[in-house]
Structure prediction request, 515 residues.
Amino acid sequence: MITFGVLDEHLETINEVTMTEIRYTSTRDANIEISASQAIIKGLSDDGGLFVPTQFPRLDTSLEEFADLDYRETAYRVMKLFLSDFTEEELRTCINNAYDSKFDTPEIAPLMEAGGSYFLELFHGRTIAFKDMALSILPHLLITAAKKNNVKEEIVILTATSGDTGKAALAGFAGVKGTRIIVFFPKDGVSPVQKKQMVTQKGDNTFVVGVDGNFDDCQTGVKNIFNNKELTDRLIQKGFRFSSANSINIGRLIPQVVYYVYAYSRLVKSGSIKPGEKIDFCVPTGNFGNILAGYYAKLIGLPVNKLICASNENKVLYDFFESGVYDRNRKFILTSSPSMDILISSNLERLIYHIAGDNAGANSRYMQELSQEGKYAIEDDMRGRLVDFVGFYADEAETAGKIRSLYEESGYIIDTHTAVAAASYDKYRQSYNPKVPAVIVSTASPYKFSRSVMTAIDKSNEAKGDFELIDEMSALSGVGIPDAIEEIRNAEIRHKTECRVDEMQAVAEGFLEKC
Ligand SMILES: *Cc1c(COP(=O)(O)O)cnc(C)c1O
Prediction:
């Protein structure tokens, strides 16, 4: 491994000259090939497929050197590999605008140790959940990509949310010039905290609407707006172009590769591992975006042993890794880790495409089976290419039990999603007896799910009020209450619009006209 400064610099100039541009194709159409910035603007391919790199770059910074870099520099070294049509200045500006004092620690993603495992805390951004990691930078990537491609219109983000994504997207896009954001949520289908977080959102370019319907109604309404060609043409005339902030955009996926490299480099820095030693990652999984970013980190050269895919009782992914059959035909279960209550993990399509040998035809057939019969079974040779993954799951009792036992053992308090991962990791450790250290990816602050967490620690907490529990959690953990929670205690309600499903389009147009 080359570690001499002079040589490294020399290599870098060579790389800059000869580095091939990474292009993107669709998981459903091999004829498509576009640049990274174009893939970010489009979000989803017209054929319904997801954009994937046609080849994987390799890390060109040594693992030793990463240990000396801060989060932003790490982000630059990793993201430049994938977003190769962005200039250095463009990419650094995006990174600096995203990972700044919006995060409550300069480390951005601190690595903690508790109960014999490492926890990668991804909840230090504005909405105290891991979606901030990607949604803080996506707006900047999007407006930069629009400029590069001479898109003149203002970008209008349309999102339907069941809670967390809406707030993280609002926080990311609020006040970003050249963008507006409209969020639709089911007015009786989100938690009181989630609702309060959204309707108090500041920023003249934000618009939040409660819909008289469920999450599926909101999502269908948004899709109808996207697919209404007459409307989108009219809006282009008026200077607006719709885009989406959902987790299938590579502008959300690529920033997530960074923290896997960062976590690894912190272990090198602390002397816990030597550069080159493998480690495990255990990821609480819903839409399969986060863990896929870990897989991409491995593909570009990070020494990863296993990626442990942790599910809650909606264990469609666990069953898939066990049997090779993906089957969404089952009861949807509401759990205490709602951001993982998902039966169709959209980003899994990218993995299917890769293990089929980057085969768009084969992948399209599986996705068609999924939409027609709700299931598909992959070939044996494809199953053989899943060796990097192992699935485990934790039920509600195991999740609560893990929160309690870890607290009792170490004083460290984790949220319900992270607890699903920690409990799954315990099962993995029992079956595999791993010899390498593990990083458990911690996706939300326990303050965001204070009721479930405090009840897990002590059943008698059930009767107490929400803010009483928050104050007690702070006393127990010695961790200060995050601003995101303090803010909603007495924030002003700024968004009062409500509408029926059939009024969504008119309401969205009305907002665009009035500003
Ligand atoms: C979204 C979310 C997840 C699931 O992440 P995916 O990338 O969808 O797999 C897990 N935990 C929390 C707290 C989340 O908000």
In short: Residues 156 and 242 are 5 Å apart (CA to CA). The pocket of pyridoxal-5'-phosphate is lined by residues 129-131, 164, 247, 284-290, 339-340, 417, 443-444 (CB under 6 Å).
